[in-house]
Amino acid sequence: MDQKGEQVYVGSIDQGTTSTRFIIYDKSAKTIASHQTEFTQFYPEAGWVEHNPIEILESVRLCMAKALDKATADGYNVDEGLKAIGITNQRETTLVWSKSSGLPLHNAIVWMDARTTSICRRLEKELSGGRTHFVETCGLPISTYFSALKLLWLLENVEAVKTAIQNGDALFGTIDTWLIWNLTGGCGGEQTEPGLHVTDVSNASRTMLMNIKSLSWDEPTLKTLGIPIEILPKIISNSEVIGKIGIGWPITGIPISGCLGDQHAAMVGQACKKGEAKSTYGTGAFILLNTGEEAVTSTHGLLTTLAYKLGPNAPTNYALEGSIAIAGAAVQWLRDSLGIIQSASEIEELAGKVENTGGVYFVPAFNGLFAPWWRDDARGICIGITRFTNKSHIARSVLESMCFQVKDVLDSMHKDAGEKGEVKNENGDFVLRVDGGATINNLLMQIQADLLGSPVVRPANIETTALGAAYAAGLAVGVWTEQDIFSDEAKQEKPATFQPNLDEELRKKRVESWCKAVSRTFDLADLSL
């Protein structure tokens, strides 16, 4: 409640790679109700990953309705007290839709999809700067990862997209843009205005099309790639009143006032200030270091990206990012494709039955490797297998693969940021803040601390992505202040800290073995079926 005794709530739409959630928070940032649902993953060909945009919309509608019902049943007057909605989403995932019909012109192409490899190779040959041609303006290399390449594929391969652009009927967006357009009116009608076609600076920074300094679409880049600016959304900050939710949704008339890509939302949820880093363990793993108001160019395989901009006139915080394509997705693979476990939660017990992997190293390069390697010709391997190897060794090697990949990124981060760019604790250690569903696994967190040789801190609330979007939304309408969000006093519950226990010499040997395993994944994309 606020000072007048009024109930105050903020909602958060968390649209991830495999599921959607809607969470309602009170003013103390405590969750009062939530609902989550999974949606379908489509794999039309090897290396291709798609989502149905309509199914994503319906998952949002369902989660809103269910969470509201739960809150009401528990006695919370959300109808009167809900002040704002924040949105956070899987980044880079790309779609084009018709503004007249509101229908997608193709399934959404997901961030981890690798179908654009040939387009990447073509651009690298044609452009004078090769793979790093656009790095100076957007901070990103040419890669299958980013939205611009996925949009080019749609332009070149989908007739409906070509026709809609020619007719002025096409709208491009990442998932945040698709959600906001539909939530604020969609196609419009006799009594409603059309939806708002916008994106925020963090999502725009992942398209390869935004100038990272001016925070606007980069016209030379658009001209080079042949992308018409008319189909692109307006770029806004992460915390401002965007528009109100229209009719036809479980909630209407409530302002949408916060929007961030999932990893940027987690930085806000973790209250990461300059020099502090967080790692989110979900389908992939994403490590970001806040570099303050300076956009640091990486020379060690990392990306320069936005951290957050909490208001139209607020300072822009930048970040160094290392993106890992496959983290928790490897656990899902053990469950769904191999049947080694029946649920993701079983992996901790199974992996804990052995003290080490027995010399087994697993590299989950299912669709190539992202940071710091950037090898789309890599493919997954499991090496060091002997007759002694059992499924516990395999399970443990999967957990270790997540932690080795995070260490690779952090090693690069330390080199790029330098001593002055990092905040250390009273013991002189660089502390990694962690979040995401996989961090509930204590064994995974201990392995991470052991391989890093430094502490890992897990907050009491590990779902910081949704919280960050709620903070941004509440900040814009006066529910919270930046002091509320970023002060140390704001942390109500004590976090869990994992200290490293591994001998330094053994750590070095295991890292050397991991690097040897990674090198074996290269140049395997053209293996015969």
TrEMBL record:
The keyword Nucleotide-binding applies. Belongs to the FGGY kinase family. Residues 9-269 form the Carbohydrate kinase FGGY N-terminal domain. GO terms for cellular component: mitochondrion. InterPro entries: ATPase_NBD, Carb_kinase_FGGY, Carb_kinase_FGGY_CS, FGGY_C, FGGY_N, GK1-3_metazoan-type, Glycerol_kin. CDD domains: ASKHA_NBD_FGGY_GK1-3-like. Keywords: ATP-binding, Glycerol metabolism, Kinase, Nucleotide-binding, Transferase. GO terms for biological process: glycerol metabolic process; glycerol-3-phosphate biosynthetic process; triglyceride metabolic process. PROSITE patterns: FGGY_KINASES_1 (PS00933). It catalyses: glycerol + ATP = sn-glycerol 3-phosphate + ADP + H(+). The keyword Nucleotide-binding applies. One of its GO terms (molecular function) is glycerol kinase activity. This is glycerol kinase. Its EC number is 2.7.1.30. Coiled coil: none annotated. Pathway: Polyol metabolism; glycerol degradation via glycerol kinase pathway; sn-glycerol 3-phosphate from glycerol: step 1/1. NCBIfam families: glycerol_kin, PRK00047.1. Residues 278-476 form the Carbohydrate kinase FGGY C-terminal domain. It holds the Pfam family FGGY_N.
